[in-house]
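Notes from the 1:1 (GR / supervisor)

We went over the backlog. Supervisor wanted to see one worked example end to end before approving the batch request, so GR pasted a single chain during the call. The sequence is below; no edits were made to it. Supervisor asked that the structure be written out right there so they could see what the output format looks like.
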Amino acid sequence: MAIHFTRSWSAPDIESYRDTVVRFIDEHVVPGDEAARQQGHVGHALWRAAGELGLLCTDIPEAWGGIGGDFRHEAVFYEEMARRALSGMNTSVHTIVAHYILNHGTDEQRRRWLPRLISGELVGAIAMTEPGAGSDLRGIRTRASRSDDGWTLNGSKTFISNGYLAGLVLVVAKTDTEADSPSLSIFALETRERQGYRVGRLLDKVGLKAQDTSELFFDDVRVTPDELLGGREGHGMRQLMADLPYERLIIAVMAVAAMEGAFEAALQHVRERAAFGRTLADFQTVRHRLAELATEIQVGRAFVDRCVEGLLQGTLDTASASMAKLWASETQGRVIDACVQLFGGYGYMNEYLVARLYADARVQRIYGGTSEIMKEVISRSL
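Structure output shown during the call:
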């Protein structure tokens, strides 16, 4: 059985770029992955190495220090990491931080932070979720109170991807706290030697073991006016909503790539593994299961690719991005579970790629908006 997972949005120059990404992964990411899984983060040196090669924030315009690529370059990096269960560098969150600054920041903020995110000098994180507030942003309790020279920030955040290594954190907080209905604002904080800023424990997750996910604490952190994203107080919700389709498409792209990685591993396994005097691939029930999985992946690839093309053309809408995220992440769970089954007991061992893909898949249905939230978003568009 031969199958080729092709991408409608690719091109020769994109595939040449893919070769560069794969070399970087083989030379820099894979050798340190086991150590990163044990310590819970990849360290700053890997981020800087990626930055030196121009692999970070590739769709940021050259005017702000980027290579002038587009979302396809970003997708290549996400795909090649996801299909190998290499989760330590959360470049998606890092890039989303850059896009918040690009799309909503002032020119001074773009000049100040974009080149340093692109180089890997700063690792980006978004501090939105709190112990008592996830999808419902109205439940956020972190507050920025007005002071003579800006704001004083108090609160805590949890489940923050890149939180341990973050050099720039976008903090979502309530402002205008005297009003009956406080508004949300986003503050961009450099963390180094930041008085009152503290990183809590590295969280022990089911999957994504190499990725630093942390608690963050803000105790009377002084915030200056030039750190308010876009210089506009009370525009946080609007800023957050504007970039959600981009974020959700990233999750869908990663989901399809992870399915492809699991399928290819399972296909190789059943061709080599013998039982009752023949390979597993010789059994009709196995062949038919593979046929079902290949079909599901191809269908998902077609829709997600169409969404990628829509993003490139500026036509991707919130409902379509939510559909892509919902379908791809839910299907990812089913497909990889089936691949684990094809491996038998070996599929439950962490030394096998398929087991790591299985553990990493579960959170895809939660972050970036849960499946339940995606259904609500989609239903409102009908």
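Supervisor's comment: The chain has a mean pLDDT of 94.
Batch request approved.
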